[in-house]
UniProtKB/TrEMBL annotation:
Belongs to the HAD-like hydrolase superfamily. CbbY/CbbZ/Gph/YieH family. Keywords: Hydrolase. This is phosphoglycolate phosphatase. The keyword Hydrolase applies. Signal peptide: none annotated.
Amino acid sequence: MSMNTKTIIFDMDGTIIDSSEAICVTINQTRRNIGLKTDLQKEFILKTINSLDKNMIKEFFKLENPTNKMMQDFQKDFDKNYNIYAKKYECVDEILDFCISKKYFVVLASNAPQDSLKAILEKNKIYDKFNFIIGFSKNTPKKPDPTMLNLAKEKGLNNTAVFIGDSIKDEMAAINANMPYINVSWGFGENSTKFKNAKNSNELIKFIEDI
């Protein structure tokens, strides 16, 4: 039996890591690379990314089928910009340290590639605060598919698990996994109309305790 009383699962981008600048800079760099002269506004980019029904390639680049070179260049630029701009939110250490003090099983579940997560978390000095880390891979589809959350709950061996995220994709993943959800208001998405919204670390900690 696990000694952990709860499994607390965190999304990464928009919840733990603020990568909004890296995303926006890369998208606008790519637009200029393919001859689009106007930059898109940050609000539009983040809203589109967190929509369930938007074709991001078409919305951002006015293309139906991007070339392999374009996508390779995009990923290369994004990796560089992520390293420059992405950083953990100020409240993250307090929240993770609280979970550790309660001996909760702490998980990161991200749509970023599995092989990219360790370096990101180590750079932000929070890698060792997670008991389990899972990302997108060939066998693990992206949220809102519930696979990541189901695997995280199985790993934690707890009946009580909650997912904490910032977007409709995160909310839908929790619904699909039949799992409680808490939305953080400091992320990329809009407030949830179905679940609790935490405006700061104190509210989030209280909501976690109440699960």
